[in-house]
Amino acid sequence: MRQNLKTAHIMKKLLLVTLLAMPFVLSAQTKVKETAVPKSVLITLSKTYESYKVKTWYQAPGQYIAEFVTDGQEGHCYFTASGEWQYSSFPIALNECPTLMNDYFVNNYPGYRIKSTAYVEEMSGDNYYRMIIIKKGVGAEDCELIFDTRGKLQKSTAPDPDVVKRDYYTHENPNDESVREQAAQDKSRANRYAKRREAPKPDVVENERPEPSDAIKANFNKRYPAARLAAGPDWYLRANGEFVGYYMNNQKNRFEAVYNTETETLTKTGKVLAKERYTSAIIKYLNEKFKGEKYTIEKMVVYEFDAKYRGADGKKPKPYTYVVVSQKQKNGTKKFTRMEFDNSYKFMGLLAQPLDEKDVQ
Question: Which residues contact 255 (CB under 8 A, 6 or more apart)?
Fold first, then answer.
């Protein structure tokens, strides 16, 4: 059951997990019908797990969450709004966790109880166990312990184990003077420690740069093997929902491979022109447009559509050129003008915003 799932995914490269980088508690969510879930999310789920059944879909700020069953194990699968798989969390019995986990808890946190344990699979391939513990009593806060797949502690938001054990012993042995003195010192030390230790992260999606799907990466790697690249790809999500991979070939020419996130196919490829290869007809147009003004061409890219791509009219669109021009302002900043030209170098229109974060700002 659970073992099948772990076998299928632990085969990924197990790097030291980026601990606590994502939330694990369902909150601020609403139920939604599957018809309201983006197609990209549904496609990613089907590619992540071979067999599954979704019980309920939820929507949270920046997220879609599937409460689902796979290999007989219930869990929650988290996706970004653009359809990228973030991680999956599966509740798991303590006796199914590595023995080292329970040993660590028993030996270091007397007076605490285990609230929950879970097995987590991340998009990066980093899989690990998560244990939530809480001090017995009223008003205590949850503490989080992260263990690798062998059961070795990797990260913790719990108090210093030595302080916990002394505090517990003091409570159990109130007449021991030496213990009381040590407890006073420990209390001061614990207060300092609490200020330094990392607080549990809230259940919000962190503003990390999104990554393309595995299918897009595989398509890119097949078309542009690493041996043919001098740099890249550096992936960015564009405002229109496309993913672009910036890269440089061994001849030091720079390119931009643009992918459709829904079909996960290459849409077009842009070649960044060297200064000496700027199109003369476009230079002429710019000289007339900015007559009497100083300007700099920051970028000139010729985009050609993939052979299999077809537009809304069923035809393959013709190439076009994207140009970014800058002008220095009196306050020292730059003003950017973004333009597009058709394949005959006729001006097509202006763009108000940069294409993505890597585009000239």
Answer: 246, 247, 248, 249, 269, 270, 271, 272
CA torsion 157-22-33-73 (nearest 10°) is -70
> Which of 28 and 229 is assigned the larger pLDDT?
229
| Res. 351: pLDDT tops 50 | yes
Three-state SS for the chain is CHHHHHHHHHCCCCCCCCCCCCCCCCCCCEEECHHHCCHHHHHHHHHHCCCCEEEEEEEECCEEEEEEEECCEEEEEEEECCCCEEEEEEECCHHHCCHHHHHHHHHHCCCEEEEEEEEEEECCCCEEEEEEEEECCCCCCEEEEEECCCCCEEEECCCCHHHHHHHHHHHHCCCCHHHHHHHHHHHHHHHHHHHHCCCCCCCCCCCCCCCCCHHHHHHHHHHCCHHHEEEEEEEEECCCCCEEEEEEECCCCEEEEEEECCCCEEEEEEEECCHHHCCHHHHHHHHHHCCCCCCEEEEEEEEEECCCCCCCCCCCCCCEEEEEEEEECCCCCEEEEEEEECCCCCEEEEECCCCCCCCCC
Q: At what angle do helices 161-172 and 177-196 cross, to 10 degrees?
A: 150
Q: Which of 161-175, 267-281, 339-353 has the lowest mean pLDDT?
A: 161-175
Residues in the chain: 361
Look-up of token digits 């799932």: 5
Q: What are the tens digits of pLDDT across the range 79-138?
A: 988 888 888 999 998 888 999 999 999 999 998 999 999 999 887 667 899 999 998 877
pLDDT in tens, 24-36: 444 467 889 999 9
* CATH numbers and ranges of domains, the chain: 1-208 (3.10.450.360), 214-351 (3.10.450)
Separation between Cα atoms, residue 273 and residue 357, nearest integer Å: 20
For residues 336 and 360, is the Cβ–Cβ distance under 8 A?
yes
